[in-house]
Design a protein that fits this description.
With about 300 residues, the chain is mostly helical. The protein contains twelve helices and four strands. The chain is about 55% helix and about 5% strand. The longest helix has 24 residues.
Length: about 300
């Protein structure tokens, strides 16, 4: 003989307490608007109507379309993080140049004879400035701040950072390719300055504004003035030209390739880098004997006057 417990008052069976699938020890009477599973306060995410669970939010992020700027970059929050980081790096290295009495300058500037043995110089020189002419860094950082935030907001942080680095390398490649190695003074002069990269940003600004149908008279005036300045003694016009051409080429890729085709865009940007490498390889193959330093010789480069790549 068996007995059964009496039914609850009203004849209804007891109901199971709903619990959060991710936290089985937590009762939850709120349900996700997408999957309708119980969701505890820790797993709730605000939705246009009610809440969603964290799993549904993640699934939606994987399958939903990612917002892009009109030039294929990820939108920023309005703060020019990359531009400010570059400026901070330039200021920090400038203080280090002063503190070490230009020892840092001699190890990181662009010195054509040491370029192949120490290829990092193609980029690091764009973060250095003349310690004997304070306006060099002031003008360059001012120009960078004029155009950097605008381009960063349109291109996104990653694409803008790559634009700057490619333009910086392009400026050094311009010096390497266009400087006469048979001239010991020109070939043995060290170059520093962000102006090659800044000229690349000017070129990108020109391309982007043309694409948008906006006025380009202002940037053309800036370029004209700086073209005249580039002809002055002590100015590395080769860096300006190399950076400008690289910036234009990079911006053409970013402006005219489909913004939704990330592999094609990054592949084309890689092609720009390969062109720069090819230019360096061709120039190196035509150097006269003794023009290129190798091994420990490159590390012991003789101190010399740094050619200002400034504006």
């Amino acid at each position: 003989m068996t007995t059964t417990p009496p039914a609850p008052y009203g004849g209804q069976a007891p109901q199971e307490t709903p619990v959060c699938p991710r936290h089985q020890d937590r009762a939850s009477y709120v349900r996700c608007q997408r999957c309708e599973r119980p969701v505890c306060p820790e797993c709730q995410r605000p939705a246009p109507v009610g809440v969603q669970c964290v799993d549904c939010v993640r699934q939606q992020a994987r399958t939903g379309r990612v917002a892009r700027t009109m030039f294929g970059g990820l939108p920023t929050n309005g703060r020019p993080v990359v531009t400010l980081t570059i400026m901070a790096a330039c200021v920090g290295l400038f203080l280090l140049q002063l503190a070490t009495q230009d020892s840092v300058t001699r190890h990181l500037d662009f010195y054509p004879p040491a370029a192949i043995a120490e290829p990092y110089r193609f980029v690091t020189s764009a973060f250095l400035h003349s310690t004997s002419f304070l306006l060099h860094i002031v003008f360059n950082l001012y120009a960078l701040y004029m155009v950097g935030p605008y381009l960063e907001s349109l291109l996104g942080r990653a694409q803008f950072a790559l634009l700057y680095l490619l333009s910086a390398a392009g400026g050094s490649v311009g010096v390497y390719v266009l400087t006469d190695p048979s001239d010991p003074v020109a070939w043995g002069t060290q170059a520093v300055g962000a102006s090659g990269a800044v000229f690349g940003l000017f070129g990108a600004f020109l391309v982007v504004n043309r694409k948008l149908g906006r006025d380009v008279a202002g940037i053309l005036g800036v370029l004209l003035v700086n073209a005249v300045i580039s002809a002055l003694p002590g100015i590395a016009w080769q860096a300006h030209l190399g950076g400008f051409v690289t910036g234009v080429a990079t911006a053409l890729v970013l402006a005219y390739l489909p913004r939704g085709s990330a592999p094609a865009r990054w592949g084309a940007l890689g092609a720009v880098a390969l062109v720069l490498l090819a230019a360096v390889a061709v120039r190196t193959s035509t150097l006269p004997p003794g023009a290129e330093l190798t091994g420990s010789d490159a590390a012991a480069t003789a101190p010399g006057p740094a050619s200002s790549g400034g504006l």
